[in-house]
Amino acid sequence: MTAATDSSLFPRVPDSADGVLDGLDPEQREVATALHGPVCVLAGAGTGKTRAITHRIAYGVRAGILQPASVLAVTFTARAAGEMRGRLRQLGAGGVQARTFHSAALRQLQFFWPKAVGGEVPRLLERKVQLVSEAAARCRIRLDRNELRDVTAEIEWSKVTQTVPADYPAAVVKAAREAPRDPAEIGQIYGTYEQLKRDRGTIDFEDVLLLTVGVLQDRHDIAEQVRAQYQHFVVDEYQDVSPLQQRLLELWLGDRDNLCVVGDASQTIYSFTGATPDHLLNFRTRHPNATVVKLVRDYRSTPQVVHLANGLLSQAKGRAAEHRLELISQRAAGPEPVYTEYSDGPAEAEGTARRIRDLIASGVPASEIAVLFRVNAQSEVYEQALADAGVSYQLRGAERFFERPEVREAGIKLRGAARFGANDTLLDDAVDLPSEVRAVLSDMGWTGEPPAGAGAARDRWESLAALVRLAEDFARARPAASLADLVAELDERAHAQHAPTVEGVTLASLHAAKGLEWDAVFLVGLTEGMMPITYARTEEQVEEERRLLYVGVTRARQHLALSWSLARSPGGRASRSASRFLRGLRPGSGTGAGRRTPGAVSGGVERGSGAPAAAGRPRHRSPARCRVCNRTLTDAGEMKLMRCEDCPSELDEALYERLCEWRAGQAARLRQPAYCIFTDKTLMAIAEAVPGTEAELAVISGVGRRKFDRYGSAVLALCAGEELMEASGDGSGGAAKNSSEK
């Protein structure tokens, strides 16, 4: 077990509050024990953020510091909220409310509506598309299917940014947003849509937040009642908070500051819905006393995957890029990412399917493989290629697991067997829980071997097989569990939409893959016009596309493949080119990835001071700590490297060899020992940091002013991969060759 993952689907409940902290790394433990005042957790991909915040809540509850009913944890999807509730239950902290913003607001609205307004809460409109279509027709505006979807999205954006219909055209200009139609027309449709809702006594999901905000703003007695109920707040995925959600959070808090937020600005991929990382990036400004904890130990991905992810962000621009986190892999080395160029789209899909089939043959489960693409329309060719290759697959975002007919039927049969099993001859030969489940499902046609090929029969079998595997895991974790206990577990999972693993390759869009991970990930269709998408025109939009690709890269634990095709169809014109985001990352495309550049944030903890330090006052110098494991460093060599000798290194070995060769030449010419030029540790520090500017080189321990003046230009040239002219007599190493030399 690593510090970021559990070894079982059903871990044992810790026997004490201190037991909740077992297995956490130093930064995660800081999160878990920071129970008072504002806390901001900057958590990179794969660094165990959900583990850290659930253990924080559980530790507070188990230690008697937090009352379960006084804690409200909010996140952005029902699946994430369900997962959080499940983890808290496993840690012995049941009773904590973990909900989406909309779910929490709807509960409060339903409870307080009779008191605040009177009567019944208006009926909730499940889907607004039909009403938007009617509003457009009343405005005598024709919308095709795609325009209808886009206009609906614009109405949603307007409401979460608290923009009224009359202000929509001006708001679009101010936000540099590209409207799908004439903004005046959309404003007109938006206004008519709102009027239709009022006429019919309905509200939509955005209204749930707006109305809750209105009630809490207007009725101070109700606001105080809510604040008396909830004393502590935790917000996950804080980079995705909209202005409306932030306003609701502020009303929940009042003048208190018991708030813990968790996020990563480099994973902001929903700005088109109104989400903004500004609330996360400005947290320390709003809360000067905040404790800021940075999680950068990546337990998910191999060093090779992490190196690529860091390299992708090292080329990023904008405010989010200035606060990016430099991940440090905690896993053993794995295979290098594979880059493949194909002649056309079908060839790319067929090649991907072949590689997936080979991975499965090598022992990688199909459920641990994903094919990720930019838009859902790309899935069809991969569905066909996988079917032709005899590989089962599942579409992410399709029908929910617990809503499948065979799963519902299985639930009914298992519930009946749990209640009347003693009189059921079907269970006569069952010796344990898994065999009971297999016996019940065999009555539905389930067998130990899957049916041949793909299709509906195989899909049905995979659903039932997932239930069998879940029963086996459940029995291993709880040997005394009965069939009734398993049924209760299934009911809890259905409520939380926490589905068991279905055997089959996952096909999903990059947006739908957020929050998930697999052993092997295939990022496909990485061409200009698709990544970044063709309508991403501003720098801000392009940078969001880069972050979207970063999310895709960081879904992979071990195997990562990136591919693109030159033509759409066989025989077509090869007019496509690989995504600009791959320049400098794939071999032969320019400067190598992974170079540290200004703005990258390392891990650690920052305590809020409440006020800036007085000018001219000597600052207390903190002890040097390993940037990997956070241990205090005392050895001079380790302090120079800023890491323990045996902690993982990001050393650029080729650069280190070039530096050593250059140093040997300088030492021979100057007739000095090599260490007088630079020590081994200093060269290692340079090869780990790979400085690109004078400022970056100057801050490395061992590079003093004298050595910087004498050797700085040569070292920077070597770091940039340039060849040096034969050394001059002063020992500087000479100038780099330039392109004008013949």
Automatic annotation (TrEMBL):
SMART domains in the cross-refs: HRDC (SM00341)
Enzyme kind, highest EC tier: isomerase
Gene Ontology molecular functions: 3'-5' DNA helicase activity; ATP binding; ATP hydrolysis activity; DNA binding
Keywords: ATP-binding, DNA damage, DNA repair, DNA-binding, Helicase, Hydrolase, Isomerase, Nucleotide-binding
Catalytic function, reaction form: ATP + H2O = ADP + phosphate + H(+); Couples ATP hydrolysis with the unwinding of duplex DNA by translocating in the 3'-5' direction
Region (Disordered): 569-621
Annotated UvrD-like helicase C-terminal domain residues: 303-558
CC cofactor: Mg(2+)
Domain UvrD-like helicase ATP-binding residue range list: 22-302
The protein's Enzyme Commission number: 5.6.2.4
PANTHER family: ATP-DEPENDENT DNA HELICASE UVRD2, UVRD / RECB / PCRA DNA HELICASE FAMILY MEMBER
Family: Belongs to the helicase family. UvrD subfamily.
Stated name of the protein: ATP-dependent DNA helicase UvrD2
Organism of derivation: Streptomyces lydicus
